[in-house]
């Protein structure tokens, strides 16, 4: 199932993009298709876990990664949800073939 999401442009957003089901919030009006696909992957993850569990897991995993890597950006890059989204953002067909709870494969260091 391909997830579209409602795309909203918010110029004062502090990051390039953010997914909060069912919305994709973007800093620019003309984002790249890979960024949109990255955020759609997050929408799918949120659908699978539900918003509360997704964000609780995201925050807890971020804290664990921050303890491991000691730097915000490295911690962010190593969160399982982000690892999956970054690895597959260029594959615009990924969501059509993505296995259920695929982010679990990215929990390893």
Walkthrough of the structure:
The protein has a 3-stranded mixed beta sheet with strand order 1-3-2, with helices on one face. The model has no long low-confidence stretch (mean pLDDT 95). The relative contact order is 0.15. It has helices spanning 33-49, 51-69, 72-77, 80-88, 94-97, and strands at residues 6-9, 17-20, 23-26. It is globular, with a radius of gyration of 13 Å. The protein has 109 residues and is mostly helical. It has 5 helices and 3 strands, in the order βββααααα. It starts with 5 loop residues before the first strand and ends in a 12-residue tail after the last helix.
Q: Which helices and strands appear, and what pairs or packs with what?
A:
Elements: E1 6-9, E2 17-20, E3 23-26, H1 33-49, H2 51-69, H3 72-77, H4 80-88, H5 94-97
Parallel strand pairs: 1-3
Antiparallel strand pairs: 2-3
Keywords summarizing the entry:
3-stranded mixed beta sheet; 109 residues; 5 helices; mainly alpha; 3 strands; 11% strand
Uncertain segments are none
Strand and helix order: EEEHHHHH
CA-to-CA gap between the ends?
29 Å
Question: Tally of extended strands?
Answer: 3
Task: Report the mean per-residue pLDDT as an integer.
Answer: 95
Q: How would a textbook summarize the main sheet?
A: 3 strands, mixed
Individual helix count? 5
Inertia-based shape? globular
Class from secondary-structure proportions:
mainly alpha
Gyration radius (Cα, Å) is 13 Å
Percentage of residues in helical conformation = 40-55%
Task: Work out the strand percent.
Answer: 5-15%
**Oligomerization:** single chain
Please list the strands of the largest sheet in the order they lie side by side: 1-3-2
